[in-house]
Inverse folding.
């Protein structure tokens, strides 16, 4: 497994996932070589505070994804409220206002499936705490494309439904507590700290 | 890899749709079109995109359904109420200064945005001097826009949005419950021209003072987005206004320098006076 094998990380979560993200993202170094694309379910009609909240804790660049923006390494892109986040084959952000998928917009499945199509076996999918089953199909697509899957340990998650649904669909995914996920991601890319 | 074959099939299908029906989706965002075609493939019980292409080419009767699935866009009256509040409070004072007005709702879909503007302009006393152009590529969507009938279950949301936008009247003045839905008053349409127009293949048709085109450009690739923004630039009078969707921006466009940011958070731009 060479350091260049991996191209991107996708993450998804809902209830309780901010806590997990706060344990993962600040632990990644500024030279972390992959982009991280993330969907967190939030109210559709409110401005998201997630990028602001995490920006001051992280060494990575943290932003809300903008349509047509080139995807850069060492950057965390959050889906804007009420829009799906997708990846274009030329490694640009694409947003969509298509129907919610299983009541979710942004949808974790939409992000994971779109990223799996572009990054294939170079993709890492991470499903965090959450109260519904969004992300399970998406993670299965990531694995089917040859990528790897990580699921937050349901025992440690604030909401277990999302990790449990992901594990039911993807029994071979790695199971970790948030504190281990950052170390795992750094290990994949040979970042030691 | 199988999904690369599917990429090829998608390109062939879009070419087939263009050659046979003159709907040009070839410059659409591939990430979105793929999802929509996957949905169409399932819904029409096709095993592959090639199978879907076979149907599209040999059975013209299914094209409206495919077109619907490729263009479907559900909106709301006064969606993003703050957008309309800023139009009302900051843009309309400028528009009041013109003797007559033309407003273009580009990609009007089933008409929610159009009725929002028609009501807003009536409330603000601008309706009588305004001509609205409501355009879309989907004839079925245009028919729905012309009918102006929406599900009663959506009215509560529309009413709430209208109130938040600074509405000066009651939304219930503009519709009657009929046909199992809320039918918006035909007087709102008397100054509207509904027209089939494509931002991809058609040209500018009028000089306009305000263009609202929300959540349309995100479905275009960069080149096509530049084409559409070029049309808007050419259609707008100097100092005319362009409103985009809440997550659309001109930042990555070649036409960025032709516009000033007028209301940043609401994505309202103003055509520069001198170029």
């Amino acid at each position: 497994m060479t350091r260049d094998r991996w191209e991107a990380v996708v993450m998804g979560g809902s209830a309780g996932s901010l806590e997990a993200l706060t344990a993962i993202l600040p632990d990644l170094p500024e030279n972390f070589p992959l982009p991280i694309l993330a969907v967190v379910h939030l109210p559709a009609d409110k401005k998201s505070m997630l990028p602001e909240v995490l920006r001051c804790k992280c060494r990575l660049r943290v932003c809300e994804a903008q349509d047509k923006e080139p995807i850069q390494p060492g950057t965390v892109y959050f889906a804007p409220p009420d829009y799906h986040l997708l990846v274009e084959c030329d490694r640009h952000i694409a947003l969509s206002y298509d129907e919610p998928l299983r009541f979710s917009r942004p949808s974790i499945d939409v992000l994971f499936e779109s990223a799996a199509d572009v990054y294939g076996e170079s993709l890492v999918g991470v499903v965090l705490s959450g109260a519904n089953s969004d992300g399970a199909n998406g993670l299965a697509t990531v694995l089917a494309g040859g990528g790897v899957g990580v699921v937050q340990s349901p025992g440690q998650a604030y909401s277990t439904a999302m990790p449990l649904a992901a594990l039911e669909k993807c029994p071979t995914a790695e199971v970790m507590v948030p504190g281990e996920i950052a170390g795992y991601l750094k290990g994949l890319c040979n970042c030691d700290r | 890899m199988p999904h690369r074959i599917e990429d090829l099939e998608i390109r062939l299908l879009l070419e087939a749709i263009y050659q046979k029906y003159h709907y040009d989706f070839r410059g659409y965002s591939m990430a979105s079109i793929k999802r929509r075609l996957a949905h169409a493939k399932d819904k029409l019980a096709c095993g592959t995109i090639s199978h879907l292409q076979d149907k599209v080419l040999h059975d013209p009767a299914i094209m409206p359904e495919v077109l619907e699935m490729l263009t479907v866009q559900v909106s709301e009256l006064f969606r993003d109420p703050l957008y309309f509040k800023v139009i009302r409070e900051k843009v309309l004072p400028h528009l009041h200064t013109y003797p007559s007005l033309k407003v273009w709702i580009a990609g009007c879909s089933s008409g929610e945005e159009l009725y929002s503007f028609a009501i807003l302009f009536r409330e603000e006393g601008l309706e009588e001097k305004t001509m609205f152009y409501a355009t879309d590529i989907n004839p079925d969507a245009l028919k729905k826009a012309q009918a102006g009938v929406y599900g009663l279950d959506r009215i509560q949301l529309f009413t709430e949005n209208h109130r938040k936008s600074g509405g000066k009247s009651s939304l219930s003045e503009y519709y009657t419950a009929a046909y199992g839905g809320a039918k918006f008053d035909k007087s709102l349409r008397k100054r509207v021209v509904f027209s089939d127009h494509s931002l991809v293949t058609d040209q500018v048709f009028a000089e306009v003072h305000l263009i609202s085109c929300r959540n349309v450009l995100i479905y275009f690739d960069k080149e096509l987005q530049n084409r559409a923004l070029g049309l808007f630039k050419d259609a707008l009078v100097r100092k005319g206004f362009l409103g985009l969707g809440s997550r659309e921006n001109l930042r990555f466009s070649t036409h960025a320098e032709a516009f000033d940011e007028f209301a940043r958070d609401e994505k309202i731009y103003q055509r520069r006076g001198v170029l």
